[in-house]
Write the structure tokens for this entry.
Amino acid sequence: MTQYTNQSVRVRFAPSPTGELHLGGARTALFNWLFARSHNGTFLLRIEDTDKVRSKQNFVDQICESLNWMNCDWDEKLVYQSKRNDIYKKSIQKLLTSDNAYRCFCDKEELARIRGEREKAGLGYTYPGTCRSLTQNNIKVKLENNTLNVIRIKIPKGETKFSDSIYGEITVQNNELDDFIVARTDGSPTYNFTAVVDDNDMGITHIIRGEDHISNTPKQIILYNALGYGLPQFVHLPMILGPDKKRLSKRHGATGVQAFRDQGFLSSALVNYLALLGWNPGTEQELFRLEELIGEFSLERVLKKGAVFDIQKLEWVNQQTILKMKNEDILNSIHSINMLWGDSRYLDYLLSVIELMKPRCKTIIELMDSSDYFFDDPQEYDSKTMRKRWKTNEVNELIIYFMEVLKNIVTWTQENIEIELRKLSDIKELSPAKFIHPVRLAVSGAGAGPSLFHMMEVLGKDVCIRRLEKAVEILPIDHD
């Protein structure tokens, strides 16, 4: 395992606030955070908001809220690119002064036409360097005439190579790159340029990001060299893929972190699952606490192969996480979604409901939705179960017998309820199922659920008898 000094590791997550935090971004942030925490390093957050049209403050807020929910806290003040224009201008001027960049006055539409023709002919296109050789006098005249211009970097001859922590040695021939733009006609800097200036100013030692940025890395290295900066270590993470092995996107139904939170997934479960997307702990262990992830995480165990997002596996991790939680903590999670859940009931009752329902629920929302009958009498009954389990008035007679038995139970426990039901089934020479299924329908309105006897104990004697009486009055319902 590569060793780092306590002060050496500084990483960053740099989202653009043009939308909510999606899973790919969340996984990138998490890997940066885990790497920093595992080496007692520093995790920073930079908001890349130079796109004035698409960048929104509400997305900044949402990204920050999602990261906080995931416990990926950052260590220093937020950095906003939109507030660093003066620094970018000075760095652009440094490139011009050192002759590592030049002004390009070429007509944008004309360049686009040439590019289109070459691409149509199946030919590659790079900017031909038309303005590279302009004299200072030429430039002066054009500037005096207010001719629009961009600033391009001068790509040096030779090759650019770097060692990626995941993908190893990568070499790019510089003649495959064109003199890319570092500042637009309005003076605003481009992504590759701002990323390099910011990462250097922030003292970033390891740039951990998605593999879709590999093509940007040679360009950024050229900028690092042109500006006289030392190089960080580059780490490119495998993509998260959909079931069709293509990059995960909205067409796969992929949603952002906030949506998973709204659906009742726990932050610890989502973090656990995201950590395993593209990282192998080296063991069969699948369930991790955050502290364990910090202790186990290493870049050496990040895989090159893209990781396939599996919603069923996420649901399983979430369910296992719920099962391991204290009922009080589950209640807190429920109340973070809906403070009114179980508002009129005692704490012990709510904890009993949670204990009974949590083995059957994959998410907190599912637990909340499936427990309605613990708080309100059923207003309707599952139609399929009615047709199968409560066909005739003979069922009503059985339920009336059972109600009389229930009324005589002194100690209302699941054990006593079950004993009395099975006694009655023996007396009537019927299968216990002839009682169990219609009773469940009457007290819950559903055809399936947790242990009937445990459910009846939690609901209480009076509630169960009241609901059985109501069912006897209105069932069976004629479905013809």
The chain has four domains: 1-80+238-324, 84-237, 326-369, 383-474. DSSP finds 20 helices and twelve strands in the chain. The mean pLDDT is 95. The first strand starts at residue 10 and ends at 13.
